[in-house]
Structures are given as C-alpha cells and as structure tokens.
Write a structure and sequence with these properties.
The protein has 2 domains: 9-165, no CATH class; 177-265, no CATH class. It is built from 6 helices and 13 strands. Strand 10 and strand 11 (204-210) form a beta hairpin. Helix content is 27%, strand content 31%. Helix 1 (9-22) runs antiparallel to helix 3 (48-63) and helix 5 (231-243) crosses helix 6. The chain has 280 residues and is an alpha+beta fold.
Length: 280
C-alpha cells in the first residue's frame, strides 16, 4: 500500500543535490567491480542505476519512504509513489530540482526544470540543460526527457528520452552479477567516461575513452572537445580528478584499466556505434 503523501521534498532535494555533486556519472567503475572484482570508493560515482540507488536509498533511509527503481532498457530512475503524487529522482538526467508529479490532476503531472550543464549562448546569456518529466496515471508510466544546449547549433538538442513503467522494476539492488555482465558489453556501451560537476563551481567536465579508437578526450562545460596532450585536456582532467578526490593519473588509469576489463569479456568482433568525439 502506498503512503498518503510523498517524502519530505526538502530532504529529496538535498539528497539530489548531494548526488549530483558528490556521486558523479561513471560508466567505468562497474567494470572494476563486476569484472575486476575490486571494490571502488563511492567518490568514483557510478553508472545511472547506481546514481539512482545512491539517491533513492538515502532518501528512503532519511524519510522511511520506499524507493522503487523503475527500468527502461539500461536506464534506471528512483520513484517514490504515494496516493497523491510521484516523486522522481533521476541523477543521470542531471535535473537540478526534484520532480513531484500529481497523480490526481493531469495539469500538474508534468514539469520542466533546469539541468546541468549550465552553458552560455554566444551573447553570454545562460543556456541551461532542461529535464522534462510527465506522469501518465492511466498507464502508470513516467515519461522523462533531457535536452542540453548545443553551442555549435545555437539551441537545445535532445539527448535522452525514457518511458519508465511502474510495473517494470528492479527486484532488488544491487542487481545480481549475472544480470549486470551482459549490460556492460551491450553495443550501446561505446565509451567509458566520468562526468562530474566540478568542485566549487556549477561547471561540468568530462573525461571519456571511446572504445573503438581508445583516444582519450575531455569535454569542457560548453561541450568543446580537447584531445590528450593539450593544455586544456590536462586542465579538465585535473578538475575532474579533484571532483572525485583522486589524482589525474588515477583518473586516466581508471578508464584505461576498465577498457582492458571490457576487452576481457566483450564478444569477439563486436561492432560498436560511432562515438561523437566532436564539439557539442
């Protein structure tokens, strides 16, 4: 039976903010954990299911409300369902404000909020990402989509969109290793990356290793790509390393070692979709 009302929204918001800043997206860390069988500290963050669970478990601990981990393909979000509303936490989609969607009034069942990265247009005006969520009570489905500003195009572009049904839930968390292993080598996994909100700022940085050519790149807050060996690459790696409380060399080693672990279990000859290594 669902509770009458959702968890304290300020608690939800505080946990979401902490997760975005202190538990970054990291698609490499699960290779270390599930293939290399070496535990990694929480400062390394995790892929989207672990981000959702980091926030959802903490909210459940603080409020007593049950987190439901709903699934669409390889994506997971945390929902808190009450008789009145659905509270949504999906750190992978970078929304800066938690969603509370009304189950009884369709006009209040959709919201759109700012999301990282917080970019700027050519004229200097703010151009944040946006995350939009809508609850469909009839189908018991959360529709959620994420756009971010593209400086090269001059407008927001669609990045991700999911339909998360309430009847499609993880039976428990963390999932069994046998469930995780096939997902780690899914063809969609065409790169390994760490994407973090940088310490003492609202800027983002990303260090990525495309699995096809294995040439490290870094992206700055505006989505511009910088290649290994450049001064800007080194600067971004240093700031991402500070965000995860490790040395720059450890960040690079973390990604390279995860790629070796990927090679040890990936199907021979697997073709990967092209990775966009250009400016956004």
């Amino acid at each position: 039976m669902s509770p009458a009302t959702g968890p304290d929204l300020q608690v939800v918001q505080d946990v979401l903010t902490e997760t975005l800043r202190e538990f970054p997206y990291n698609s490499a860390v699960q290779f270390h954990q599930f293939i290399g069988l070496t535990e990694q500290g929480p400062e390394w963050g995790g892929a989207c299911p672990w981000q959702a669970a980091h926030a959802g478990d903490r909210i459940a601990e603080l409020t007593g409300h049950e987190a439901r981990y709903v699934v669409d393909g390889r994506h997971v979000a945390a929902l808190f369902v009450s008789d009145e509303d659905v509270t949504v936490v999906d750190p992978y989609l970078m929304h800066r404000t938690a969603f509370r969607l009304d189950r009884r009034d369709p006009s209040r069942a959709r919201q759109s909020v700012d999301a990282f990265p917080l970019r700027r247009r050519a004229d200097g005006t703010p151009a944040p990402g946006r995350t939009r969520a809508e609850w469909d009570e009839q189908t018991q489905t959360l529709h959620i989509e994420y756009t971010r500003f593209s400086p090269t195009r001059g407008h927001n572009v669609m990045s991700r969109a999911f339909a998360l049904r309430l009847d499609s839930q993880l039976p428990g968390f963390p999932p069994e290793r046998e469930l995780i292993l096939p997902l780690l080598t899914h063809p969609e996994q065409n790169n390994l990356s760490i994407r973090a909100v940088l310490a003492d700022s609202d800027e983002m940085g990303e260090v990525a290793l495309p699995l096809a050519d294995r040439r490290l790149i870094a992206r700055d807050n505006q989505g511009a790509v910088h290649h290994e060996g450049s001064t800007e690459f080194d600067r971004i790696v240093e700031r991402v390393a500070a965000a995860v409380d490790h040395k720059p060399t450890e960040v690079v080693e973390h990604l390279l070692e995860a790629a070796e672990l990927y090679d040890s279990v990936a199907p021979p000859g697997q073709e990967l979709p092209a990775y966009h290594a250009g400016d956004e």
